[in-house]
Design a protein that fits this description.
158 residues, mainly beta, 2 helices, elongated
Length: 158
């Protein structure tokens, strides 16, 4: 559990400057693929930018909820990540980490299983205005088992 707290401790220098920042909020819809279980997935996310700044790096947060399309039951995952951002021309690069929660409900009944774990993620977004394509890679770890996921979609800035 200590590893899941580390990204939020790293966020403290950014948050100390957050009172002076302008927040930008984007809504995202995305599709992806869980490499470990070979499941396609769909999800919704909320991206917050402007949680303070340290040099050229801006603080941000990524919150999402998604479902995997699994033949053996339903899988729902929700994440809260701290995502520092750095602009390279029109590309916004991000690397971050945070907390993950996942619930698996077997097909046809049976006991559901919930796990809390942690994430690391990296990705990029192409800044095109108010509608921006993005792609990310995420590694989620639950009880020592990791799951790698590739996902991408479109962010719409408010």
């Amino acid at each position: 559990m200590t590893r899941s707290i580390l990204p939020f401790l790293l966020a403290i220098p950014f948050l100390s400057n957050a009172a002076y920042a302008q927040l930008d909020v984007s809504f995202a819809g995305y599709v992806g693929y869980n490499i470990e279980f070979e499941n396609p997935m769909i999800g919704l996310g909320l991206d917050v930018d402007g949680l303070g700044q340290v040099g050229p790096i801006r603080g941000g947060a990524w919150v999402d909820i998604e479902t995997q399309l699994d033949d053996n039951g339903s899988v729902i995952q929700a994440d809260l990540n701290f995502t520092p951002k750095y602009d390279i021309g029109q590309v916004e690069a991000t690397v971050g980490g945070g907390i993950a929660w996942q619930r698996f409900s077997p097909e046809g009944g049976g006991d559901s299983v919930s796990n809390t774990g942690w994430n690391i993620l990296a990705g990029a977004m192409l800044n095109m205005g108010s509608i921006n394509p993005f792609a990310r890679f995420r590694c989620s770890t639950f009880d020592g088992n990791s799951q790698e996921t590739l996902f991408g979609g479109v962010m719409v800035q408010f």
